[in-house]
């Protein structure tokens, strides 16, 4: 007796599943708030050298601020004032329009920087002067966070496959909140970076376990909907981030506000069910029967459980399961799952690398950062509705392939649009963001459907590890613009197109049963024949 058959009988999309989604929404709202927090927490405001050291008590003191800057800061080729250099002595001749560079001594900022606080009261950049020669450290704050996510994904994947989805979610909630709060009170950049690493590691568990728990409780006919609806949490969290960042423009309070949804999720955890699929796969029939009964009663289908006992569930599970513990090695032990794991790893790397390359560069379109982030969040809702109908009618594989290829096309197009045409750049950029978001949404659902139950969390941990590897590198790619200003865009474009082509090698999963064991993947032909025999026997 397959679990999917039981789930169909007790309603694979009822009050029980809606309750599950709503409980998990509380915690998942905090994910985009942290994953995209760098757009505001590490924003780089306009700045110039602190010129107070040039005040000689004479003419300089009587100048207006604009005049002081004119005689103290050299101009760039485009006429703007330098952000990283200053004159060692005031050049009063600049007041008369002379721009002579004879006998001019230019040096790096001597006594720090002055920042424009009109948009952001404080950021980690202004806190520790992460500009000019230290600007790489600003980008590194995102990289360190995602390296934490990268290591946390396989760790939580392994532990949740070993000890269950529910207890590891609580561990993720508690540790994310603790490290998030500590990071807000960091007294040095090193301490801040370490705490962000552990915050990312903790949030990785929330990211991968929550979506698996949802998918494992939804029936086949509603699995697409489950994958899309949990993706809407990201959209809502995106809007929440814009609102919080607009209202809270001090980076320490911003981190605390972004972490606050986890308080409610910890309270609501007591009503969160364990995955009955995982319980059955691990021989815990009594507990599985308990949660299945809870689901049946809540969905008004209790009468269908009259003939289903814990013993029957256990015998059904033992008929196909092997008494062994599964590890990451099992993702590469046999031919088909090895091919599947390699392809999924490559695609996940490309999806995440491209998505965060777009999302963490909201200042590249010439708009207010709050407006850009709001536009990026708003485009997700209609896109995800469209993705739902596409996945239901067409399938996962063509959806993933085409969204990645179209992302590459948008990135390629913007290479040739000059910065002055900010409206066109924004429109193309938003379309690219929409396609990239679609590829991310599809991939989460697609991956949970491809990996068998016994290694599903291990599989998601492995793919999430490679995805976060891509995310960790993605912010640093922007530093390549110092070598060639188009190199970052070209890199993102090539990775998007390449990963889209690899996605074409994956099998389709539309309306297919979730594989329970590795043998379901390795012997699909035998499985198909067995189904046909059962159907023939039923009709005869």
TrEMBL record:
One of its GO terms (molecular function) is transmembrane transporter activity. Its main location: membrane. The chain crosses the membrane at residues 140-159, 171-191, 197-215, 227-248, 254-272, 340-358, 370-389, 401-417, 423-447, 459-480, 486-506. GO terms for cellular component: basal plasma membrane. The keyword Transmembrane helix applies. PROSITE patterns: MFS. Keywords: Membrane, Transmembrane, Transmembrane helix. Residues 96-510 form the Major facilitator superfamily (MFS) profile domain. This is Solute carrier family 22 member 6. It comes from Anabas testudineus (Climbing perch).
């Amino acid at each position: 007796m397959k679990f999917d058959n039981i789930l169909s009988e007790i309603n694979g999309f009822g009050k029980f599943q809606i309750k599950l989604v709503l409980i998990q929404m509380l915690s998942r709202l905090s994910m985009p708030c942290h994953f995209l927090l760098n757009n505001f927490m590490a924003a780089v405001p306009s700045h110039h050298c602190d010129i107070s050291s040039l005040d000689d008590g004479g003419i300089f003191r009587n100048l207006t601020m604009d005049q002081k800057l004119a005689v103290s800061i050299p101009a760039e080729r485009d006429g703007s004032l330098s952000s990283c250099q200053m004159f060692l002595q005031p050049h009063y001749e600049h007041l008369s329009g002379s721009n002579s560079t004879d006998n001019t001594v230019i040096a790096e900022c001597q006594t720090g920087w002055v920042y424009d606080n009109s948009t952001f009261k404080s950021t980690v950049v202004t806190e520790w002067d992460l500009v000019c020669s230290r600007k790489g450290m600003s980008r590194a704050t995102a990289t360190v966070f995602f390296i934490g996510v990268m290591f946390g994904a396989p760790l939580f994947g392994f532990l949740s496959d070993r000890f269950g989805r529910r207890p590891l979610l609580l561990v993720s909630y508690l540790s994310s909140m603790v490290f998030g709060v500590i990071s807000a009170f960091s007294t040095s950049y090193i301490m801040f970076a370490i705490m962000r690493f552990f915050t990312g590691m903790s949030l990785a568990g929330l990211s991968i376990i929550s979506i698996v728990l949802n998918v494992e409780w939804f029936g086949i006919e509603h699995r697409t909907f489950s994958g899309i609806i949990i993706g809407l949490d990201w959209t809502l969290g995106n809007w929440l981030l814009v609102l919080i960042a607009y209202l809270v423009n001090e980076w320490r309070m911003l981190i605390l506000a972004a972490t606050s949804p986890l308080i409610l999720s910890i309270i609501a955890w007591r009503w969160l069910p364990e995955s009955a699929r995982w319980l059955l796969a691990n021989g815990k029939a009594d507990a599985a029967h308990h949660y299945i009964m809870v689901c049946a009663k809540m969905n008004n289908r209790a009468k269908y459980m009259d003939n289903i006992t814990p013993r029957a569930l256990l015998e059904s599970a033992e008929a196909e399961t092997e008494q062994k513990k599964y590890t990451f090695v099992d993702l590469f032990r046999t031919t088909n799952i090895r091919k599947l794991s390699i392809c999924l790893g490559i695609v996940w790397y490309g999806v995440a690398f491209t998505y965060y390359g777009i999302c963490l560069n909201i200042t590249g379109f010439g708009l207010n950062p709050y407006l850009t982030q709001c536009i990026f969040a708003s485009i997700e809702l209609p896109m995800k509705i469209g993705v739902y109908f596409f996945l239901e009618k067409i399938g996962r594989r063509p959806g993933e392939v085409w969204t990645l290829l179209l992302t590459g096309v948008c990135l390629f197009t913007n290479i040739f649009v000059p910065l002055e045409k900010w409206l066109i750049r924004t429109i193309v950029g938003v379309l690219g963001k929409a396609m990239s978001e679609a590829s991310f949404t599809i991939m989460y659902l697609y991956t949970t459907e491809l990996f068998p139950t016994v290694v599903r969390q291990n599989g998601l941990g492995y793919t999430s590890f490679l995805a976060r590897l891509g995310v960790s590198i993605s912010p640093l790619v922007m530093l390549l613009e110092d070598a060639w200003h188009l190199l970052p865009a070209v890199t993102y474009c090539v990775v998007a197109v390449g990963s889209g082509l690899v996605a074409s090698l994956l099998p389709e999963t539309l309306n297919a049963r979730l594989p329970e064991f590795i043998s379901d993947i390795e012997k699909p032909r035998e499985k198909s024949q067995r189904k046909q025999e059962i159907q023939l026997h039923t009709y005869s």
